[in-house]
Amino acid sequence: MIEHAGTTQVDVTPNGNDDVANQSGQRSSRNGNGRPLGYPVDSQVVADPGGTRILFEGHPAFPKSQRPRRHWLRWIVLGGIVAAILVAGVSFGVPYVRQALETVSTDDAFVAGHITHVSPRIEGVVTAVWVEQDDRVAAGQILVQLDREPYQLAVDQAAAALQEAEANLVQAHAQARAQIAQARGAYYRKKNAQETVRQQVATLRAQFATLKSRQASLELARNNLRRGEQLLPSGGISKEELDQRNHMLKVALEQEKEAWAAIQRTRAALGLAADVPDPLAIPRDLEVQQSTVQTAVSDVAADLAQVGIRINPKDAAQAQAFEDFLRPTGSRSAGEGLEAAVEQAPAVQVARAAVARTRRQLEDAQLRLRYTEIRSEVAGTIQDRSVHPGTRVEPGQTLLSIRPDEVWVEANYKETQLRFIRIGHPVDLYVDAYPGRVFRGRVAGFSPGTGLSESLLPPQNATGNYVKV
Question: What pLDDT does 355 receive?
Fold first, then answer.
């Protein structure tokens, strides 16, 4: 029986000896008679009551295969591989290309840094060296020790001088206060002198009144004696009574002389002229100009001058101001508030200056003592050590060097590369001593010249200059 399915035609005989062909593709084998037996790849032989048939895939009666087809898996794997290749190319290729286009590089670079040369500030003998070559040191660490003994003696001497100066300052304060106390005493002597003058003036006036009384008694005694002499011849009085009147006249005369003598003594005590017609002729400013008062005023001025206060006794306002200052009033005691004047006293100022000078000398001696310990100013590595114990060193002499931890990289680029570089641009640094490690940095600045141009004797090449004119 022949059945058509699609475009493939298959001829099948009952005994199964006929060839079975498939125009789209077939696989064959040999039967027992040596004849080929063929059947389509996508077909299957089935038996039913109507006879044996060969059915192609897609026919309703074609049985379903139990194994799933996986053609799509190959495409997924292939697509994943292609995608991975593309992602890797973008991830690694694009940054590489971008770096090549946007960066400049050079191998002409070197690490640079400052070198700190350590030298003593004072002279002395080295007693100990606490570091060795290539040692790591921290800032403030002791490197070299100098002999401390002579500088310790200087500190002790300066301390003793300071104590002496401070004692002199205390003494100067005491002397200034003593001078002010003497000024107060002179002030009270002046007041006492003025009171004495006023008492003497009052005594002079009383003595003058006594003189007048004595003169009146003398005139009465004279008149009585004259009348007695007139009455004696007529017997009006007796001789004895006349003698008594004569004695009264002598007594009155002596009393008058005594009154004059008392007046002269009082005037002399007041510093006034003795033989004057008017015993009461007294200057109006006698309480100020009297010698005892002037002596007391001079003592006040001299004592205040010792503490730096100048006073003019002839200046009434100034004299009154200092008198009010020295005189106690109310609850304020005499001399209160004079501490500022004590501090301004010349002797106190000299003593204070001596204290300040000796204190600075002590600080200088202590500083020089600290300089016996030569310390590191920076953290770094010891280099070029040339000092040993027992060496006598001088100020400024280099003992060793310290390479600080702070370093930078000096890179030399071509002039055609410099136009792409700006201050602040990021920099990747690769050091041969640290393979595989990248150091990050930034452009800090540009040097105005190369190392050779900044040397002591720069070369002057005739050719090969980078600057072309």
Answer: 95
118-127, 253-262, 332-341: range with highest mean pLDDT: 118-127
Instruction: Give dist(CA 296, CA 308) in Å, integer.
Output: 19
- Report CA dihedral (206, 208, 214, 219) to the nearest 10 degrees: -140
End-to-end CA distance of the chain: 104
pLDDT tens digits, 226-253 = 888 888 787 778 888 888 888 888 888 8
| DSSP code at position 333 | P
Residues 180-214 have pLDDT tens digits of 778 777 778 878 887 888 888 888 888 888 888 88
Checking if the pLDDT of 37 tops 50, the result is no
Distance CA 283, CA 276 (A): 13
H or E segment and range at residue 113: strand 109-113
C-alpha closest to that of 303 among 254, 350, 342: 342
DSSP string, 120-168: -SS-EEEEEE---TT-EE-TT-EEEEE--HHHHHHHHHHHHHHHHHHHH
> What does the pLDDT average to over 63-81?
69
Q: Which of 95, 99, 86, 5 has its CA nearest to residue 45?
A: 5
Per the listing, tokens 């050779």 go with 452
10 token code pair: 């298959």
| 85 alpha carbon, distance to own chain's centre | 65
Tell me the CB-side half-sphere exposure of residue 356, using CA atoms within 13 A.
6
Helix (H) or strand (E) holding 383: strand 380-383
Residue linked to tokens 């002496």? 164
The H or E element spanning position 226 is helix 149-231
β-strand 407-411 against 373-375: which pairing, if any?
unpaired
Q: Let me know: does 287 contact 225? Beta carbons within 8 Å.
A: no
Q: How far apart are CA 292 and CA 197, in angstroms?
A: 9
Q: Which of 315, 18, 342 is nearest to 174 (CA)?
A: 342
Q: Name every residue whose Cβ is closer than 8 Å to that of residue 287 and which is 6 or more positions away in sequence.
A: 194, 197, 198, 293
Average pLDDT estimate for 123-134: 94
The pLDDT value given to residue 328: 58
Beta bridge partners of 430: 438
In 230-362, which ranges are E strands?
none
